[in-house]
């Protein structure tokens, strides 16, 4: 109904009317394009169609006679109004493009401009949640099916496809997601243009852009919970050279193991580490091993520190949050990368997994299998049992049977027990849903490959079986407990700091460009 109404309004004869009507119509076009870019092509086609005067051709006595408006005295004014409309439409779509273009000749303000743009994109991103985007796409599919079924009863006719209908295959059904998709495509094109000059990779320009984007990442992206797409700007940039990916991993590692930073940021860094290692096809196996070595070494040191204190340790997530997110990052990485490790060299791969001493991690007093997301816990258990690396099911069954309370400290310092999963983690490089800009991400991205040779994976919470074509086995696993620590800008509270958190060995992943 809305689509039909919009296209009806676009066909209204607005040219040649009073100035008040023209002004109102131009305002309508500006509001329409700025709010829902899905109608951009339709608006442009409508305006351009008025560049040719309307002609009426009749046939008298076998001779075509053309009744032309070429001499209409209103034509110059109508053309002026058409150009006003084009300038108005293009102004909204080219705003980000032109801001980025300014950075080419005034590089000193590039960081500020990137911060401004990415801040606006983040607002769009968090207002177009993964669930809402998927629901919008599903509703469109259902609507299209219903339309196709209703047309089956009609006789065959050639479809009259209007030139101002948007292309369904590349347009997002969710209007905010459509706008975000357009702007992400502009930003990614800018990134590539900066890093590649005449097709050749430019090291110094790339370094400078990476530093600027990393600063914006620390300030805006890392503290933002539930963003789905904006963080892929760094994912895309890091795909250009292995050294960039290693530099990003090294940066995340330094945040994670820094006890002076708020725990909420350290947990976010662990989430980025695990998700980046699991999903980025361009990260070589040697780098994955190096990252796992750092993570597992830090985890074992943390366990040592808890064992040496002589006190019984409970699952206090507000105190041990970085530890649990680090364990989850290790489990998640192994789930996605174990095949590559074993296919390269089965014997060497098994020896490496055994050298991680994962049995000590899962059996320690902190009990990470109790806190990590159930989907990750169960898949990790299935994989490690198949290759006889570690046996987790006894612990999982005991956790399920005992329903151990998990302690988290309230703002007032009191302890609150809960039987819900308190590890409010998200995986920032979950599947990319935007269609046009997603074409750049697709060849770089490791989709979830169902492990048919392992035991059947337990059904997801609240579901009977799994969805068709579901990429991510984590679907629906985000905990919803009230009061759980979230990665939001308001979460910088002193009670999130972990006084007993450890530092790390001074290892570094970063190599020179």
Protein model, in words:
This protein is mostly helical. Among the domains are: 1-54 and 71-105, no CATH class; 262-430 and 474-513, no CATH class. It has helices spanning 2-10, 19-35, 40-49, 75-105, 110-126, 130-151, 175-195, 203-221, 232-238, 242-256, 263-279, 285-308, 317-344, 346-355, 358-363, 368-371, 374-386, 393-402, 438-441; strands at residues 55-60, 63-68, 196-197, 200-201, 406-409, 415-418. The strands form three sheets. It has a two-stranded antiparallel sheet with strand order 1-2. The protein has a two-stranded antiparallel sheet with strand order 3-4. It has a two-stranded antiparallel ribbon with strand order 5-6. Strand 3 (196-197) and strand 4 (200-201) form a beta hairpin. The longest helix is centred in the first third of the chain and has 31 residues, at 75-105. The two termini are 55 Å apart. 33% of the residues are buried. The model is unreliable at 157-168, 410-414, 416-422, 451-470 and 476-506 (pLDDT under 50).
